[in-house]
TrEMBL record:
Gene3D superfamilies: NAD(P)-binding Rossmann-like Domain. Pfam families: adh_short. One of its GO terms (molecular function) is oxidoreductase activity, acting on the CH-OH group of donors, NAD or NADP as acceptor. Belongs to the short-chain dehydrogenases/reductases (SDR) family. Residues 5-182 form the Ketoreductase domain. This is Ketoreductase domain-containing protein. InterPro entries: KR_dom (IPR057326), NAD(P)-bd_dom_sf (IPR036291), Sc_DH/Rdtase_CS (IPR020904), SDR_fam (IPR002347). Keywords: Oxidoreductase. SMART domains: PKS_KR. It comes from Geodermatophilus siccatus.
Length: 252
């Protein structure tokens, strides 16, 4: 493991992002924890002190992203590892009845947000000839399911962008990876169901989903490979899942 790296994690206030931040900190790295809800990062800072730099950041706002990342304190640069985690699913109806505002939220966060952050961090990595970008995708980027057309499209875009990014930096020494989780029990479903707890819990009933920490284990393992090794992409499911809609549920 390479101690003391600066790791930028977006969407670090909860779920996979929070778990990734904790995992990198446990390995001796320092974490720029970026999120819109920075008040939720207070305990992360309190627990880990100067190893955490909370950063208020809405990845959808290109000007805000640029201003925040170009004004990082000198001791928090350069960024060695970028984990593009910020993302969400919104809406669950068929595309002909969906709310277009939900489409915008997903496109702006899952696709444009990833591009906005990468555009600020990647040039420095290429110039230095070192660095690692790890994009968090989804198994939904590999297949489509009813009620998820736009979300699946945004995650398919992440996969295309990741592959193209890897080709664009070829020869620079920069590594580009992607992690595609299946069902992970976080606030993901709660957000998708607009805060309705009962249907959000029902998503995981009768099966054992992944935990955010399981995904973070994969992310840190990828980041800790030797510099000449690129783990290009990883698809990780709970044992009770074999695809979108392919879930083994046990009776209660």
């Amino acid at each position: 493991m390479s101690p003391g790296r600066v790791v930028l994690v977006t969407g670090a206030s909860s779920g996979i992002g929070r778990a990734c931040a904790e995992a990198f900190l446990a390995g001796g790295d320092r974490v720029v924890a970026a999120a819109r809800r920075t008040e939720r990062l207070a305990d992360l800072r309190a627990r880990h002190g100067d190893a955490v730099l909370p950063l208020t950041l809405d990845v959808r706002d290109r000007a805000q992203v640029s201003a925040a990342l170009t004004s990082l304190p000198a001791e928090w640069t350069p960024v060695d590892v970028l984990v593009n985690n910020a993302g969400l699913a919104a809406g669950r109806g068929p595309i002909h009845t969906d709310d277009p505002d939900d489409w915008d939220r997903m496109l702006d966060t899952n696709v444009r947000g990833l591009l906005n952050v990468s555009a600020c961090v990647l040039p420095g990595m290429v110039e230095r000839g070192a660095g690692h970008v790890i994009n968090i995708g989804s198994n939904a980027g590999r297949e489509v399911y009813p009620g998820g057309a736009v979300y699946c499209a945004t995650k398919a875009a992440v996969e295309r962008i990741t592959r193209g990014m890897r080709m664009d930096v070829l020869g620079s020494g920069v590594r580009v990876s992607q992690v595609d989780p299946g069902m992970v029990e976080t606030e993901f479903s709660l957000v998708r169901f607009a805060g309705e707890e009962a249907p959000a819990r029902a998503v995981y009933e009768g099966m054992t989903p992944l935990a955010a920490e399981d995904v973070a284990d994969v992310v840190t393992w990828i980041a800790d490979r030797p510099p000449h090794v690129v783990v290009a992409d990883v698809l990780v499911y709970p044992v009770d899942q074999a695809g979108s809609g392919r879930v083994a549920r046990r009776g209660s």
